[in-house]
Structure prediction request, 415 residues.
Amino acid sequence: MPIFSWIFLVALVTATGLQIWLILRHRNHVKQHRAVVPKEFEQQISLDNHQIAADYTLDKTKVSMIELLIGTGLLLIWTLGGGLQWMDQLWRRLEWNPIYTGIAVLLSVSIISSVLDIPFSLYRTFVIEQKFGFNRSTPSLFVKDFIKQTLLSLAIGIPLLGLVLWLMQAMGDYWWLYVWAVIIGFSLLANWLYPIFIAPLFNKFTPLEDGTLKQRIQDLLSSCGFQSKGIFIMDGSKRSGHGNAYFTGFGQQKRIVFYDTLIENLSPDEIEAVLAHELGHFKRRHIRKRLISTSVITFASLALLAWLRQQDWFFTGLGVAEPSIYMALLLFSMIFPVFGIYLQPLFSLLMRKHEFEADEFAVQQTKAEALIQALVKLYQENASTLTPDPLFSAFHDSHPPASIRIAHIQQVAHA
Prediction:
């Protein structure tokens, strides 16, 4: 077996073992703290709700572990097991243009992966979410969503993939610079188009009615210098009982979105505090910073791919006999998470830093106590565990653990 095959196997086993170890740590930590509500939350969250959150976490992590193991097995089948080689040979028999062949191979792998993920999606939605009272979806809506997502992915993905493969074939040694420009341009365009054309395909967005709440929100937006296309209520309860708020869009298409479940469960003070937190991301330029960091990572990744594309051992070491531009792209996208998992804590750290900064901004604009009360309600209503394993959280959580986050808010408020 080629040397790179052994390197890949060792990396895959190590990465999978690390993730399993982290999940087991997390499960044990949650179990150990299931019997008692953390002291800082004992006045706001009942033991029953705390235990529901623990059980919800345990059920989700159990499925995640099974999904991880199956995903690892499938990756081995696709690569060293010869699955990609077989798929490549199947489409090569038609003797199409390499770009058309590449699109067919990549779409085939993507469709198979999507179909294999359906049982997990069904289980998460109609077993776990249903068990804990969060699911509002129906089998009919689930099927409609799947069809819409598939058609949308094909409508966007096929032209974009064709363009990328053409650039890889036609632009010589520096094709990756052109591809990088296309990806960044597409990302900006997608951010601009999403609230106008894509999101309404799945949810209904209703302008917030005139009243005291809308006036308070508009006053806050004005004081922060935030120009938006409007404040909207999304029918999140159509699919789930979870609540959230966010702002979306790019440039002149920025808009504020509240889940209807959040509007129903939070007081005006709390809603204003949540919005102030979201505005904190805007004022601290977090979206811009994330776009820049994503651009840098994409740039470096494509440069690495350009080099790997020239190395025969990269293909043969992953079970592919005939190098091609599309197979280089497919193999790289499959194995990047295996080698890139060790960067996850760095990205999570950056995201948590942004959350702290957004909380700091919210405290400056609204009442700290209102923000804390809103967060506690959201933790409770979303059944988010209050006792995650610290190491698991460092790897996977984009938001700080509840106790740390609230303690930080209190510290800022009293500074």
Summary: Residues 3-172+322-342 form one domain. The mean pLDDT is 92.
